[in-house]
Amino acid sequence: MTTELKPAAALEIWRRALTASVRRESADLSARQMSALLTVYLKSGPHTVRGLAKELNISKPAVTRALDRLGALKLIKRRADDSDKRSVLVQRTPEGTSYLSEFASLIVRAAKVLK
What we know:
The protein has helices at 7-23, 31-42, 49-56, 60-72, 94-114, and strands at residues 47-48, 76-81, 84-92.
């Protein structure tokens, strides 16, 4: 049996997880950066700048800026697409997997506090 999560409770879980996130010694990502990162990790690929821009409904330059930051943090990596030299593939990294695993744990802990 599942219970419906009320909007206020959902926001409290998100607030608690974000608060715990900014207190730890890891990257502090913007909402756009986190959205791009989650898309790369949770949606099946391959991922490209064009594809992410379409998925997130934002401009390609906005995606590129987000990917620049994520790449600098080693949370994603980019490489040329061997089949289309005009395209750049966005790929997962072990550091990105670890970052999101830790962030997911923060969300789970925040949700348990409300139960």
